[in-house]
Amino acid sequence: MSLKRILALASGTAGDGPAMAFAACLAGQYDSVVDVLPIYPDSAADMIALGIALGASMSPEAVEALAVAERELQGRIEGAARRAANEADVVFGAGDGAPRMAVLTRGLRPSLALSRHAALADLVVASQAGVQTGLGQELLGQALLGDRAPVLVARGDPDRLAGPAAIAWDGSPQAGRAVRAALPLLAMASAVHVLQCVSSLDRNTADPDIDLLNAYLKLHGVGAGVATFVEGEDEGAALIAAAEGKQAGLFVAGAWGHSRLRETIFGGATRTFLHRKDGPSLLLAH
Predict the structure, then answer these.
(1) CA distance 197 to 227
(2) How many angstroms separate the CA atoms of 210 and 93, rounded?
(3) CB neighbours of 3 closer than 8 A, spacing ≥ 6?
(4) Region for residue 87 given its phi and psi (left: phi exceeds 0; alpha: psi -120 to 50; beta: otherwise)
(5) What is the pLDDT of residue 205?
(6) What is the DSSP letter of 104?
(7) Residue 56 pLDDT
């Protein structure tokens, strides 16, 4: 598997930088096409709809002011994408050929646009700052749970992807999908570490045999992972701490192996991974 079409999410804020940089870097590495999807809300449409619901209306001046603000957001996204493309020596703008990065036209509903474009994307890239917002969290959940797309949460410098990588392996379908999606990135890692929290393994529903995982990695030209076993009541904290201890630049894990509602109420490994604002970039799949 290779990364030939990448979807990068951008909201027009300063937090877009890592997502743009990682996507452009991967485009240069894998001769890919990056589509940058604007995900800021349509304030004008929302305000008009609210006015209709309340029996009121907005003045043309107010509508125009909102439109100007959105054009500014679109301009920021295009400027950030152009800078990232230039730094990675990737062509900027729509057209044929690769590597290339282009900004898509803003749609009225970010969730609908995400589903349409994620259908044929090998990877969705979002920044850590982006997934901390209300809309960002919603779209992250949709990408993983609804669209079943692998998501890279970009943190720090994309050059760290060439360093060690860590896999949280429990044999679950979610972890397996994350590994399959991460194969191109694992192949470029300087070392692969396989992490297991032995106190939380469910051997009744999955086979967490690390030898099976290593045999699969070898078939795809990835070196065998070095096993590290950890324990702790907080599975997520134990695993991410182990990854940081290995100086991993990439952390591969299944997302929401338990129900999302259960993890929201009781906490869970996925929430721990996402709430960590620094450390390795995350590649998650459900």
Answers:
(1) 11
(2) 44
(3) 26, 29, 30, 32, 122, 123, 184
(4) alpha
(5) 77
(6) P
(7) 58
Q: Does domain 158-285 have CATH number 3.40.50.620?
A: yes
pTM of the entire structure? Answer: 0.89
User: Domain 5-154 carries which CATH code?
Assistant: 3.40.50.620
Pairing of strands 151-154, 281-285: antiparallel
Contact criterion met (CB below 8 Å) for 133 and 11 = yes
C-alpha span between 249 and 161 (Å, rounded)? 5
Q: Is the Cβ–Cβ distance between 7 and 154 less than 8 Å?
A: no
Tokens of 199: 């106190």
Mean pLDDT for back-to-back runs of 10 residues, the chain (286 residues): 93 94 98 96 56 60 72 93 98 96 88 95 97 92 95 97 97 96 97 92 84 96 95 91 97 80 56 89 97
Shortest CA distance to 10 belongs to which of 120, 122, 102, 89? 102
- The token pair at 156 is 């720090």
Tokens of 84: 């990232």
The angle formed by the CA atoms of residues 192, 197 and 203, to the nearest 5 degrees, is: 105
Predicted local confidence at residue 267, as pLDDT = 47
Q: Residues spanned by CATH 3.40.50.620 within the chain?
A: 5-154, 158-285
